[in-house]
# Entry
Amino acid sequence: MNSDAKAQADDLTAVAAGVDQPLTPAKSTIASRWFIASLAVLSMVGLLSSAFLWQKLSSMQEQLARQSADAGLQSTEARAIARQAQELAREAAARVAVFDARLSEVSLQRTQLEELMQSLSRSRDENMVVDIESAIRLAQQQAQLTGSVEPLLAALKSADQRVARAAQPRLTPLQRAIARDIDRIKSVAISDTPGLLVKLDELVHLTDELTLANAVPAVRASSAVKREPSDAASTLWLRSLQVLREQASSLLRVSRIEQPEAALLSPEQSFFLRENFKLKLLNARLGLLARQLDSARADLAAAAVSLNRYFDPGSRKTQLVASMLQQVQSQMKTLQIPRVDETLAALATAAAGR
# Structure
């Protein structure tokens, strides 16, 4: 386009230059023809270029119209899609809101269910703890009454099995306390209560055979047979003097008594002394049966004091009774049934929910 316009401008410049020059008629005719021809060519060229430009502009307009139509259609589709997206977003938001509400309801129900399960589990554990505590206390009373640790050991083993079946972490301290109490009870040596009762009965039976400290020893038979006086000339006063000497030796007795009140006992008081000694032994026996160990120990101590004060320490029966009393007193020290305070404390802690 630019080259054609430049050529046309050059031709017009040349024609104008030729017009200014003086021409002959022939030359002027030729020039006018050439001018007309060039004008016609230029007009044709201009028309062709205008037609080409018009066609190109029309095509561009059509293309722009199609593009605008396409853009409008696309914008319409985009609006529809955006509208659908908004509707979908609203539906999704509504569904999310519904899901959130349902989720909150499910979470609340789950929380309530967990609380209910924990409450049921806690109630079951609390009932189990109460049952175990009652069984252990009852077994401890039975052990105190019978003097045997078997009821207490059986109750502790049963409690250990129940706690192990429950498998609750918060009951682990209770299980450890029960195991320690079982080991401690098994390691303690407990005296035989029936054997002690038999020994006390023997002491009561031996009381009548004890010799008092102020008792007169039996007159021992003389080893030598009294000889008849060989001398017929023995006078009567010699025989009388011998009889008097024998009677004096039987009336006079020298002995050492540590307690003055033992020497002043009358025969009636000796009877009551023996009965009082028996009563102390029997009271100790009753205290042992009733598991009143402190009272039984006090009665045995009083009986030992009475034995050492009023009875003959050199007698074999007295020494035997004193030895048996010492054995009973030493064995009474190991009659105390071990307590399960650690298990009871763990049960109280578990019942409190800590």
In short: The chain has eleven helices and no strands. The first helix runs from residue 2 to 20.
